[in-house]
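--- STAGE predict ---
source: upstream dedup step, 1 unique chain passed
mode: sequence only
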Amino acid sequence: MLGTRLHPLMAVIRSSELRRVQIGFLLSTIAEWASWLALVVYAYGRGGAGEAGVVGFVLSAPGILVVPALSVLGDRLPRARVLLGSDIVIALAFGAAAALLAWDQVIGAYLAAIVATLFVGLIRPLLGALLPEVATGPDELTAANVVTGIVEGAGSLLGPLIAGVLLVVSGAPGVLVACAVGLAIAAVAIWPVAARPTDPRGAEAEVATSMTVRDQFRDLAAGAVAIGRDARLLGGVVLIAAIFGLLGAVEVFIVLIALDLLGLDEGAAGFLTAVSGIGAVVGSAASIVLVGRDRLGLALVTATAVFGLSVAVLGLATQPLSVALVLVVTGLGWSFGYVAATTLTQRLAGDDVMTRVFGLSEAVQTFAEALGALVVPVLVIALGANGAILIAGLSLAILALATLPIYLRSERADPELLRDVRVLRAVPMFEPLSAPVIERLAAGAVRLTVAEGTPIVREGEPGDRFYVLVAGSAAVIIGGREARLLDPGDVFGEIALLRDVPRTATVRAVTMTELLALDREPFLEALTGQARSRRLAGDVAAGRLAADAAAEGS
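--- STAGE serialize ---
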């Protein structure tokens, strides 16, 4: 069982493009954690918990409005190229912030840091939407999300650790210089992926330039509409936002615990935050159990509750060792939840709006994280440090339990329907489709069993169905000659439907064969609303016609 789940993970590691994408994400995550901690510690030294909370909020707040607008670029232009441009902007902004802080131009440094955090906020939506393009199937996509979670955890470990060292050695400006260098390296890593020949959205970008204001507003709102239509997607967005909201509070709590409750120095705040990163790496690695699973809602709810309860326990810890151990558990909880939420979003949101869905989710997360940092001083004044930590953690656990019925209802689905959903999701041309569309196709699909030697479709007849071979094997026969064999997972019948022509070949069952059949209307309707699916289906049809012509000619 473990070997089955590790196979797609090894495929991710072997993929040059996935490695480059993850290296870039690691460097941006390290920079995100290191820069945030450096600036919060710098603000805390100037004005205590109040200024630290305000700085954490003003660094994040602009992204709440800007990131959803920027995320439209990821659905209109090649995502890898938008990612490359973002890395370059972040590197320049961090470099400017470091210089301004070194010259005691604090306001200017904060403004430059705001620009950097705006584009840092775009990284995750782009990554979440880019991975389905690069991964070769659902299991490899889940494995890629596991690696992303491990990278996120490693960044949360290494970022504060590096910041802790550099804060002692060179102060906040030194941390920001290191962040700028890291993002420059990330841009170099992603360059070959961005430079690959691709044309997934070029025509749509041209159309976007001629849109009316109302059309553009509708374009921006498409992510919100997609989220609102699916309670599971809405629940996932709410839970991951709540996780990040508590993370924002915890980051300030850690500074408060280290400096005030434990009487340690500034560097210790970075090291304690890094301890949480150890748990995040472990939690992300443990999320490999999600590979091959169709039901992710319960995993998300459980991980969220574990994170909340562990933070509540943090409010009861009084010694450095106990604080460190509890922080490991907090990292495990939020990182597992992050992988589950990311995979759930990729399955539920369609490719045509996926970056906008992730962008809106990122904006809500940013708002929640900023709000979490901002309310810390209020909670501390009202409840004391330990009481504030306890209540914050329990609140998240209660919220997680409140969303449980949403996922219990959805995960009581017919096992046969879930099996058919998994079969269809593995078809490359269907990968960009949202989960509701896949589920509608599966609900209307027909299971067929065909005896050995029986024709399934005949050359020259009208086409009325698309077929997925589930079990057995079949032969494709053109002009009376066998052209090729079909194995489980292969598809046929799309040419007649897409091009409105008679069947171009006969397909005969070689063994007892099990098929999943989709009628013409739902098949074409599903592809009509999804540009990348249409392109993939067209490529499959064109390639198959060329191969069949070559086989017939030989």
